[in-house]
Amino acid sequence: METLVAIGASDRPPIVSTISDPGTSLPPVFYEDHINRAPTTQHLDWTVTADDIRPDGVLKRVYLINGLFPGPTLEALSGDTLIINVTNALHDVPITIHWHGIHISNAMDGVAGVTQCAIPPGSSFIYNVSIPADQSGTFWYHAHAGLARADGLYGGLVVHAPASAPDVVSKDPQEKDMLLLIGDWYHQPAEEVMEWYMQPESFGNEPVPDSLLVNGAGRFNCSMAVPARPVDCVEQHTMSLPYLHPGEGTYRVRIANTGALTGLTLTFENLDVTLIAVDSIAVDPLDAPHPSSLGVLYPGQRMDVLLRQSAGQVTTDSSSASALKIDLDEECFKYPNLALTPTQIFPISPPLSTPSQAQEVKPTSKNINIHKIPSPHHIQQTLPPNPSTTAVVYTKIQKLAIRHNAPYGFFNGTSWLPQREPHVPVAALARELWDENQFGHGHHFYILSTHESLTGWGSYNPFTTSSNPSSQSKSDSDLDLTQAMLRDTVYIPRRGHAVLRFKADNPGVWLFHCHILWHLGSGMGMLVDVGGYHDTNGVSGEVCSV
Question: In angstroms, rounded to a whole number, what is the distance separating the alpha carbons of residues 5 and 10?
Fold first, then answer.
């Protein structure tokens, strides 16, 4: 079946877009407006609505914040406080907003059924997002109730470090900041996609996306629409890419994967590329190679790169023009979607004389795997050599006859559902009232090791054969603590494992889950209780109305 995917999708000619200034609806990021000021409190009012729009030419009902898709880009300074009044003006969909990657208080984490009741239609909720003084980088926000993230309820969040802060990346006076929100896109409403996935007829195959969006815009070849899924499509012959002119200086490009399923590989042609951060954590640019392509960037993950014009490039020669190529990773595509063009190319200034010239982008042997980047800091600088607590979590998708052969996600044999009786956020309940079917949020973690088994299922046992869980683990002693990277979203290989370590210093009940939306929707989540259930950390105990 994977061979069918390669034939049906990978061999299709890429979609080649043209650019026209000033770019998409997302404005440039202006770090100079923030780095020399003192921390402050920003007050914002957001209204969430929905409208029928054509992000890639196909009509779809999309969630908007203040009339925008994606939602407004938030810019802040380390130490700022964001007071955001979110009003749900939808008719029948409850919502929450989660601030992905921010070390936030538990009550403001925005997870329906865990840290708050979902905001019902016609109601409002005030988020107090207090950004730590020591946190900066590229983040994003998105819905965390139901499946609204896949229907457009998301946006960018950039936190600038003050000019006085030590920074491994010195600011070029001509440096420009740009945000790219890139992700897969489905033409059907997310609820319908999820309903199909949870049927036995899906055989547990995750739904393959139909398209690709960059900052809320894309191009879809209307002639490739599948007859079984008719769409209202208008051909969009041009698509704007944000204002990139590498010949005018250095760009810091902040990239977030906002998709529901698919990883991304980005290829930059005729540009010098330096990876400087992953998941808002700095990578020492002196040690980072200068590849042409980077990946795979999985849903929820972010990376920051510096782009400079390659030495000797002639900017007036269209044959040497720069281009960005985005490849959707087909690892999770278990059946062919003939509507999808998984490779798309976007010229970068100077404009090409004709779109076809962009197809001269050549494969490159220079690639950097962002999951193999070593940390610039030794893990023992902040954590002890050995953990105080060790836990094992087994994850899988399983089809059981008792559940009508639908593909449910499991952590340690349980599938996550929000609290039912009483219908109160779990973080506000005494432990004895928790449902049994019970990381992640609120913390970054060190990735000590990842492993993918080429045959069989692979294994990892952190305990010795003495059956004493508290004894020294032979496996732990083999881990290289000098190379561990600090992240907030990790890719766990199929039939493999990841070994993580984190400091439990942010009290509350935190959701630990798969960021593939269809897996989370089928139950692949669990809770981590930090600090004990007696401390609700400001979470309201009201009974939820939805």
Answer: 7
